[in-house]
Amino acid sequence: MGTKSKKLRNWIHLIIWILAAIFAVHLISENLRTTFYILIVALGFGAVIMIHEFGHFIVAKVSGIKVDAFSIGFPPVLIGVQRIEDGIRIRILPTLVNKNAEKPEEGGIVFTVGKKGKASDTEYRVGLIPFGGFVAMMGQSDSGAVEETDDPRSFTNKPIMIRIAVVAAGVIFNAISAVVIFMAVFLVGLELAPAEVGGVVANSPAEIAGMQPGDRIVEVDGERFVDFMSLPMAAALSAKGEEVNLIVEREGVDEPLEFNLVAKVHKRSPIPVRAIGIQQASTLRITDQLSEEDAKLMYESTGLKAGDIVKAVNGVKVEKAWQLNELVESTLDHKVHLNVKRQGVAENVSIELPLMVMPDNSNFETGFDVAHVHTMVPRLKIYDVVRATKKKQKFLKWWRKTALKENEGDLKLKVGDIILKIGEVENPTYTELREVTKEHKDKEMVIRVLREDKAGVEQETEVIVTPRQMFTRNGDGPVNIGIIPELDVEHAIVAKTIDLENGPSRLAIPSGATIVAVDGEKVSDFYDVIRVIRHNRGQRISVDYRMDDQEAGSVVLDIPSQYDFITTKTQIDAFVPFDQLRELYKASGPIEAVGMGFKKTKMFIVQTVMTLKRLFSGAVSPTTLSGPLGIVTASYSIASQSMAYYIYFLGLISSCIAVMNLLPLPIVDGGVIVLLIVEKIKGSPLSQKVQGIISYVGLVFILGLFGWLLWNDFLNMLLQ
Predict the structure, then answer these.
(1) With bands split at pLDDT 50, 70 and 90, how would you rate the model's confidence at 74?
(2) 15 and 45 fall within a common domain
(3) Same domain, residue pair 71 and 52
């Protein structure tokens, strides 16, 4: 190829890159905020990897090993700087302009500045891809064996202990950087979720052990420097059957309480992670971390504003979020009244919010319990129809036909429909709805509903739907028809009465019967039924009913004085986001900050080691791991919310990288150290052929693992 052709191709190549750069600048200008956080994430991860590589670099330099290049970022090279005898040589875009130069140092735009001096072996580069960096040493390669040389500056010609020190330096620097990051974070102070119990899941290890909302965990498995994340991590990393030891402080109790819990997998958990059934605590303050659109929507639908603080629920003062939750759940009425303190307003503001009643309550062991009123279960009503307009559901519909989907707009079932019959079951409970739906997987199923027409008159209508199975990792997802049910408490009609374990006998009321009176008082809906039952605790009362054919009857109801056996709960039927509870974790001075930095680094390193150990033993499922996609997604989310949290997160990542790089796998540092130890024992290195095979096998393994982790991240994101 002639000189003119080479120049023409180089210019074409440069023009393409310039056009690409112009397009990138335009794209960035249209998405400045997103681009900023993407850049922050890239630089953050780049810094963590660069620190790792700097460890290799500095120890190699001190050891007299020739370092050809130290690069921040990966090729193509944007700029390269190296001290030569004539001065400081600067190369700009060496692989993009004049890339066919006979000598590599002549590629790109090259010029020299400064005075003459002693030449340096190392070129310092900045790469276009800002995800980390690398060190190029003479006689060392991550992709296989290198050619032998007599140069004493070669990596291969240095004593084995020096080579091990060079390789291990990256890991050591990652650990040191993690300590420094955490030290700086805690010296400034960081708000973290404290280890306070916001709620306890029914029938969970925590509830069975007697833990309560408001409990403060001060020690987890002997460690007293804890925040809320210490709890799920300890549970997830515990071996099957192994106890998690908690020391708890409880208001009103003088001495700390000790709990030893055996973590288990929640029945409804989409990812098999062991837990103890403790929920994070919230505050009584409406979050201000809302978009303008969401804030407007919340105000229009509820009257609440960002920054509002709830002071009372139905006239009862509250100081903790769990108190608010309990009062709302036990309200069992159409609406709940909140008294809120609003910034800039002298008097508290009264807010009235609508309530809804879900058909089940979460149960750690069984997944759910059917909600009832002293064994009486109201009919089911359609609260919402899950339409296939969401991107995730559209993709699932395309990707797997058995995933949740709807047919042709699926206007067959509508919000407000009352379910009268599903398959052959009249007035189904939530359990029966699930069972019958499961039996009709991928088969047509008839549903009879009661629906209001345009005039407000209720008419019975039959529709045909085809239940589909939702996607899960284990293929055991629920079969459903794309609806979210609630209880029809607007009518006093009993769908079924059910048997209770360790409870009263079921009331002998026929399915479909209408409750007309309780204790002689007329009732029009289940709210009235609940009100009268609660008013008569410790009494024996009558419950009168009638059927559509005018058949009437009455049953006797004995109500305990302490507990009325009402498991039906209400929740706010509106978008009301509360702030998560945060507390400032701050060192009193530099010495304590160093200690906190060491403790956090040690904790994350130990957690990483234990995770790997549990993975190999089968105690932790590999599907729970986060790969590059999950980590980057989490990083973007954290960075866009708080730079302080993102820096803290980088400390976590740096701790994990320190461990992962020590794994005895080819290509990573741990694998190189293993080969060096083999060389020490054997008295000579493995042949170049064997080293090459090991390196390429390791590369295939790493790439395969990388691909699997990406796929795993993708699936886990679908399940969120």
Answers:
(1) confident
(2) no
(3) no
